[in-house]
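Below sits the subject:
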Amino acid sequence: MTDTHPAPAVAVEDVVPALEAASIDDKAAASAVSEHVHGPDCSHDHDHEHGEDQQAPQHRNDFDLLETNGTKDKTTDPLVKKYFAAKELFANALERLNQIPEGADAELIAKHQDEIVSVTKDLMKAFLLDEKACQMHQRILKLAEQYEVYVQTNNPEGTSTTTADSEEEDAEKQNTIYTKDSVVFVIMILWSGGQYEHCIQTIGFAIQEFEDIKGRMLELRASCHMALRNFKACNEDLEEALATEPINVENHSTLGNVYYATHQAVDALHHFKEFVKVAHPDSRTLPNAYFALATLTLQSAPSGATKKKSNQALKQPSILKEAQTYFKLAQEADLRFKELYGVVTGFNEIKRTAYQAFQARTANRAGLIQTDPTPALLEASEALKKAFKNPGISACANCGRPDNVANEGRSQELKPKPLLKCAKCNKVAYCSRPCQITHWNATHKNTCKK
């Protein structure tokens, strides 16, 4: 049974040759990017500032450290279980794949079609469980070609057909036969190769066609948007993913990080609070969430509370106490992380800011350290308020790209141009001319004041 649908963005035969032509070094770099994108959800040390304790290495999944530390069985974190289940499934499928001869001729495919289908299903299942547990290499690319030949030749159960017009005049319409596994295979290849723009297109097709994996596809597309520094689109996908599958609470953590990085304190505070309510106590992102909550809560303390009985003055002590509680919980979660993983969490921007704010001390005129931390905390609160300035000025008003994140870790030639403010109102800024045009037509032409 076949249906007519919009054509997928990319087909297997278009993807595999391009990746095979890449050098080994290019593929290693692409694999590293797909495993560890240096974005707002990163918990590793980007600045390579190491203290006395050993710190987690970059470009390596934290969960692997549990095996190294011999503590994998000491946690019930469901994400840990899912990662190792995916890793085992992937390794088993890879072992079976090595028993299948290479080649895409019809006779070989017919002889080994059961094994080809079985291995493909398990590889795709592992990728959907946790993409970080899967590593792309040449033999898997060859399997993609073999599976494509099998699908086109046998039109198996569950197959659908897409129809697309050819770019050439008077040419016949082009039909492509696909299955869910073949579409996911294309996504896996594009993801592993760091071809995020093409990956976004194909994931969009998968979201429309396969309701049962919609939530997972939204998460993957959000990661692609994050890699491309399109944080507005990233947030939209993560919000929809949460609405689709509320059980995936780590999306709250990621959203909190993105909103924090783009200086949207209220939204960041909301998502971090939602996350810590339901997060597993061994979650690898829990320390970061508590550090962020400590900072965000502190910077929300009222300013200028000079009258002792004013509402602001009454709120100050409770807010400062709440912020200190979050900082204490962050330190406790950090100790649990070290106990499990054998390393400390890196000093990313969030953790560093929290320590700077909460370890501050003030001295009186005699040079003695004050035991009451309130003055230092209020001073830190005012400094944080200035740091969380208007996001319309510190980030692109259209795509949300902030300068501090977009430029982080990039070589000089790859760094984007600085944000440019609107010449008329000087209240919003843009990263590019297309973003300015899009935002102007959508809303800004109605609000811009000369």
Confidence is low (pLDDT under 50) at residues 1-7, 18-59. DSSP finds 20 helices and five strands in the chain. The longest helix spans residues 311-341.
